[in-house]
Amino acid sequence: MRLSPRLPGSKSITNRALLLAALAEGVTTLERALFSDDTRYMAEALRALGFRVEADPQAKRFTVHGQGGLIPAREADLFIGNAGTAARFLTAALCLGEGTYRLDGVPRMRQRPMGDLVQALNRIGGQVATSGGSLPAEIHARGLRGGKVSLPGDVSSQFVSALLMAAPYAQAPLTVEVTGPLSSRPYVDLTIGMMEDFGVTVTTQREAVFRVEPGIYRARESYRVEPDASAASCFFAIPAITGGSIEVSGIHRNSRQGDVDFLNVLERMGCRVTETSGGIRVEAGAALRGVQVDMRHIPDTAPTLAAIAPFAKTPTLIRGIASARLKESDRISAVCTELIRLGVRVEEYPDGMKIYPAEEIFPATVRTYDDHRIAMAFALIGLRVPGIVIENPGCVAKTFPEYFEVLREMVEGGR
Questions:
Q1: Bond prior to 315 in cis (omega within 30° of 0)
Q2: Which of 37, 116, 228, 300 does the annotation list as catalytic?
């Protein structure tokens, strides 16, 4: 039976679009946008900064009245929960304003790194003070000079995206050079593509050197948000675990979202992937094989692969995801710990894990560490193994509030 889930809009696209629309000149309407904790924090922060942001959750629509690079409020206290995109993107954008702004978040967000971004901003005219390189942060904004700045790329690609999105309103051209490997490169490419959608061109001078000239973003009358590819990975994974097939509408392999590359991993495991007129169909193969894969550019899908791996005929080796330790939880440690509690043999490495085929998976309550990706991934194991209970399932509200409702529809539809 062919099933098709209802997917939310992309969190990565929605939060970038909210900020770009606020910085643009004119009014932008975002269609099929995501309404979740992360996007709510971003929208509320923009309102606190004096932007007019109208929300219609039923229609999945935001309307943003841009100010052409101006930050209306001269002072604001912003709370951004555990939304890394909001924290990093706003820290850079607020440096363009004129005033004093304070950002804070939940305890886990206070543990997540900001230091490389803050140092880069302060080298080009920002005045950002943090608590040991993490939130809370205080920004004394007087604009950004531009010039050239370098920063490492192995902690968070969001640092690079934040600098690039603020760059058009710097006083002079800004060149951002990434030193060392750039993890999650597709997210930077997504940012560059969206900046071009709003009228600003980013020049890639070398592999990881980006230049932005002074300019202005132009509003989009209607800007459509793609379905979330990270969330889609969970549904693409279902046939690998349970058999059958699934079709996800509205997303294609040429998506700007890097996580569509998870489909390549499924193909290597033996699944059949077909592009359709409406989306992508994944079908189970005759046998599920383990893989060795470097996931540095798609680390958000690593928990999904970890949920599939125990059902494969051979071991699965995941490498290159050291940055996953700095996400909503330490995802390497969390995944390994919970798989072991289910009876799965796992070897943990600094940048990944090796997961062995499981002869038997034991029922247990899975701890989620308040991390939506852990909850979403381990729920997939429960589609095949009775007695899997997800602790604190409400944490999925961060990016996909209806996840368990949609998953239930898939299960009931497949009976």
A1: no
A2: 300
